[in-house]
Write a structure and sequence with these properties.
Layout lengths: L5 H21 L15 E4 L3 E2 L6 H16 L3 E2 L8 E17 L7 E16 L4 E16 L12 H29 L7
Parallel strand pairs: 1-3, 1-4, 2-4
Antiparallel strand pairs: 4-5, 5-6
Helix pairs in contact: 2-3
Length: about 190
């Protein structure tokens, strides 16, 4: 193995030292996680209310919101309103089905639907007796494919096929909505003065 002459080794070592110093100083302000401090330490999540026509959505969404907060871990999820610094209220206000694609055999029949679920959120400040925020609207859209070739047989009616695909899409739709709700509550926002 051949060594570099001193005339080349010194400038190369100096350049590597400068490069290492630049790389280290560039990562100096990096920190893990979300730097924002929440204005509450514990939260109680009321069961979701449902003023929409979304089938069984409130039960699914209630559990998935709790899971999203537990996974995040920045705030303590409590089981009673009295023990909480904040109370989250979620109301499903609208559920829409829109034909996204039509059947190739019958252009009056939808083969694919976009499902949209709309929720209104309020975060109540138990300590101050007012709201951190009130009436924020969040919506999420998912897709339900009616003519699924992987379902049992062609003997399945379109109505039954739609109900099966809507049921499958509902758990995905509520999961994504729960994530958006937890992000809305846990992301930095300006509290009222």
């Amino acid at each position: 193995m051949k060594m570099l002459p001193n005339a080349l080794r010194t400038p190369l070592l100096a350049m590597l030292t400068v490069l290492a110093a630049i790389l280290i100083s560039g990562c100096q302000s990096y920190q893990w996680g979300n730097p924002a401090e929440l204005p509450f330490k514990s939260i109680y999540i009321k069961p979701v209310s449902n003023d929409s026509f979304a089938p069984q959505a409130q039960a699914l969404l209630s559990g998935q919101i709790r899971d999203a907060f537990i996974r995040d871990g920045r705030t303590l999820l409590v089981t009673s309103e009295e023990d909480a610094d904040a109370v989250l209220l979620v109301n499903l206000t609208n559920y829409k089905r829109r034909a996204a694609a039509l059947s190739s055999q019958d252009t009056a029949t939808a083969a694919d639907f976009d499902l949209t679920l709309v929720a209104e959120l309020s975060l109540y400040n138990q300590n101050q007796g007012d709201y951190f925020f009130e009436g924020r609207v969040i919506e999420e859209t998912s897709n339900a494919y009616v003519n699924n070739p992987y379902l049992a047989s062609t003997a399945t009616s379109n109505t039954q096929s739609f109900l099966q695909s809507e049921d499958q899409a509902m758990s995905l739709l509520t999961r994504d909505l729960a994530r958006r709700i937890s992000n809305e509550v846990l992301s930095p926002w300006e509290p009222k003065q």
